[in-house]
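Input.
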Amino acid sequence: MNEPVLEIRGLNKSFGPVHVLHDVDLTVRAGEVTALVGDNGAGKSTLIKCVAGIYASDTGRVLFQGEPVHIRGPHDAAALSIEVVYQDLALADNLDVVQNMFLGRERGSRWLLDEASMEQAARETLASLSVRTVTSVRTPVSALSGGQRQTVAIAKAVLWKSKVVLLDEPTAALGVAQTRQVLDLVRRLAEQGIGVVLISHNMANVFDVADRISVLYLGRMAAEVPAKDVTHGQVVELITAGRSGELGLARPESVVL
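Output.
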């Protein structure tokens, strides 16, 4: 069994009177893909933003490689080698692949960038992920397809030696061929020993690449199970009702007061 690299314990988050996350636990293991699924409004994005330091959690503990840590902002998450690839990708269309991958972390002096070093690092990172769809690292992002843009955004996270990569709907709005390329890339991330969290509504994609499935239901973690131990139908029931047979949240009548 792979070792946990990131553990969330008892996380709560409210926005005013609205309690969005209720005592949520989540374990991310090195070298595995954990699919985080749930209906719209289940709290997936809020949970990811708490991990990324964008939102401060109200209560809860975070363990990174077994040690308690405090994530007070995005810089803290980046310092722990936690990278997030959001659905909008946050890429600059007017810059090329190299410039996007090093945006805000450029190499060189104050007056002169080390373009050769950055270009070489970008090439090596893409090669390490077996990316062949991006033919030139000097191609402007505006000229790339959706799948190529997603590849650049993921490679950018890998470039910084990430230990955890959080992917928010990476195959949304992609065609069949581009989706296949991105899913293959997700598996290669795990094969490099990175702990991957994949947010997706596409159950076929989830079962294609995930080692574990974590299901959020109305802000509560309904189940964290190995993907091989559940069926498509069970996961759908967990998403829509919070329970499937003996799996999931406790039945109201079984709660002891």
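The chain has one domain: 4-92+162-254.
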